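ok trying this again, last paste got cut off
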Amino acid sequence: MHSYELIAVMAITTICIRFLPFVLFKKHTPSFIMYLGSVLPYCTMAMLVVFCFRNTDISSLYSFMPELIASIYAVLLQKWQKNAALTIVSATALYMLLVQRIYRR
């Protein structure tokens, strides 16, 4: 029974956090919140890129090649197709293929 209580508390907390902005800003959304809404997606993507490359060994081109190829592929595919799901899935599949089949470590 203890786990059900924890799940219920987490669900209620998540619901409250999701609906809190609608309750607080019924009439007018502050300009600072609008600014954050326009800037944070790019900041999040930059942080994810840094996180993904944090353990990359760039001392030799051979060890860096799978990351480089998959990253260039992801950027070009996103610019061409503008479909985030397609880019994420196919770039991940390409990276896994490169790491497991071609550039075995």
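PB: full thing came through this time. The helical segments are 2-24, 31-52, 61-81, 84-102.
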